[in-house]
Amino acid sequence: MWNLYQMYLVHKLWGAVTVKKTDDPVLEISKIGGCNVPEFIKRVLPKILSNEVASCYSWFGLKKKKIFGKLLLSQVIIRAGLHIFQTETSKSIEEAIKNWLRRAKERIEKK
């Protein structure tokens, strides 16, 4: 069952990507593209999460943050990445997501 925050993220994703409710979110996210996995993540995640929201998450929920790795959204992003980069692994996409989440606070301070 989804919690309220997960539903908010999915709603924000639908608005950011402008898809029909019948479309597959994996395919729609994969259309955002990128030359490599880190670039793909840098293009996708800002469309879904603000830096302020991202700073509240880490992949495993360390340092009293929320767990991003257990969200349905994380699995959708990984599947979209694997759809584009068929020679990559889930692990490489997870690492790119971890790096993007880790730098959220820096991006906020840089503004």
SSE blueprint and pairings:
Layout: H1 4-17, H2 25-30, H3 37-48, H4 51-54, E1 57-58, E2 66-67, H5 72-84, H6 90-102, H7 104-110
Parallel strand pairs: 1-2
Helix pairs in contact: 3-6
Protein name: DUF4806 domain-containing protein
Organism: Aquatica leii
Q: Main sheet: which strands, in order across? A: 1-2
* Category by helix and strand content: mainly alpha
Percent helix range: 55-70%
Poorly predicted parts: none
The DSSP helix count reads 7
Instruction: Let me know the number of strands.
Output: 2
Quote the distance from N terminus to C terminus. Answer: 36 Å
- The general outline is globular
The major beta sheet can be summarized as: 2 strands, parallel
What integer is the average pLDDT? 88
Q: Order of SSEs, N→C?
A: HHHHEEHHH
How large is the share of residues in beta strands?
Answer: under 5%
3D architecture notes:
It is a single chain. The protein is mainly alpha-helical. The chain has one domain (4-110). It has helices at residues 4-17, 25-30, 37-48, 51-54, 72-84, 90-102, 104-110; strands at residues 57-58, 66-67. Helix 3 (37-48) packs across helix 6 (90-102). The protein is globular. This is DUF4806 domain-containing protein.
